[in-house]
Amino acid sequence: MSPAIAEPSRTLPDSIGLDAFTARAGADPLPLAARYRLVAAARVLLEELYVHLPLKRAMHATDPVQRLRLLERRLAPLGELQFHAELAGIFRGLGDLHTVYQLPDPYRGHVAALGFLVERYTDPDGTPHHIVTRIDPSLVHAGFDVGAELETWNGVPIERAVERNAAAQPGSNADARLARGLESLALRPLRTGPPPDEHWVLLTYRTRTGRRRETRIPWRVRAAEWYAGRAQDPVPTLATALGIDAGNEATRQIKRALFAPPPARRSAARAFRGVLDHRTVRVRGRSYGYLRVFSFNVPGARAFAEQIARIAARAPAGGLIIDIRGNPGGHVPAAESALQVLSESPVTSVSFSLSTTRAALVLARSHPGFRIWTNSIRDAVETGEVYSQGFPLTDPEAITAGLPRHTGPKVLITDALSYSAADIFAAGFQDNGLGPVLGTAHRTGAGGANVWTHELLRVWLPDLLGDLPRGAGFRVALRRATRARGNVDVPLEDLGVQADEVHRLTERDVTGRNQDLLAAAAALLA
User: Fold this and answer.
1) pTM over 0.90
2) Which residues contact 454 (CB under 8 A, 6 or more apart)?
3) DSSP 8-state assignment for residue 355
4) Measured between alpha carbons, how far is 210 from 6 in angstroms, rounded to an integer?
5) How far is 425 from 323, CA to CA, in rounded Å?
6) Which end of the chain has fewer CB atoms within 10 angstroms, the N or the C?
């Protein structure tokens, strides 16, 4: 006999129901002409500027340009959500979280949320468990609280539900897709994909006392960030040195708003609240510094490096544990400058190159910051090279001039959600021999590019790109990142950074304060 279905008595604060949101969104659909403009712009970006197109065609056996041609012929009969799903699906098939279609208003700046988070751990015998680790107080009911273990999701065994959701995610490798499949169970950025099909989810779970129950939780929609009374994208649209998964940054902002308690003390400068956290941890009688870097999405590299240097200088002699799990990336100069203050020697940065297309050559000739790539793109007519010569994006030594360097032992913790600028940070940490990399997955998220928006590209390529309707947008991987030193010219895209040691999260990690993970990190320092 099935248990009675319970429902929370209150709704998620500062949100509206998914049904009300989709009704509002569908009341004023995009005109057909606007759809054609979006598809035409997508073709230009992918054919002329997308630096990973040859790699994606080979590795994922996909032809996004042909899919766009076919979509262009079949636009008229598609409904509003069908169109957005088709266009977003073409980009999702690339397995590249840098290169995405961004839905127009009112989807822009919004996230669909259930109001709780699910994390996964495995027993020593490999048995997986899926535990509620964060929940908004409005949803606590009938034993559905932190510590509840999920058994089924809409009638599907939870492990299979995660696998199915993972298959729909654009992760670059199996670990990344699984991690994103788990995270997107309860959080979906609407800027990069249409809303969930279901308006609620039906869950079977066991309470902390072992009682089996069912509940129904509705999807709600919240703004990721507000500015001047309207929902905004949490990532700058005109920045030239970004390497970031904008969708995951939006979900990070929502998680922080919903679940992060106000800080008991100022552990970092006000400008970096929610980005950095640090403390001293005790493991087996020894003290270590612990630095959590949640994001590199910061306004300036120098100020960020100064704060990292101040934190590192206070680390105990036992060593420094740096944790970039879940970091979606951000400002590439900030990531590389942080790496430099953690190294007693000059670091060798990753290199960036462009595709050798006509549009890339026009961009290189028109933008002063791209002139260094002009000759190798021009010469590709004769050399047949697919990519331009590679050059560093930043000079971390110049940015961090005069700052103290951390000379003690270090270990870096990564996971499959460490992406883009976080990939670049992990690659630099490993390539420059700063210390071992301890992963909760075998590889990082594998995003290797400098990403530009359609809006920014329009400034430099006005004859090629026009305006887009209703705040719609695109992000595209423009310059690919390749590694240095012993991994010279190895791309980060789709490969990521392989961990030196792997630690699978345990129950104590997920339900406590990462005790076993920190013990594993301390063992590597020792």
Assistant:
1) yes
2) 41, 45, 465, 468, 473, 474, 475, 476
3) B
4) 16
5) 11
6) N
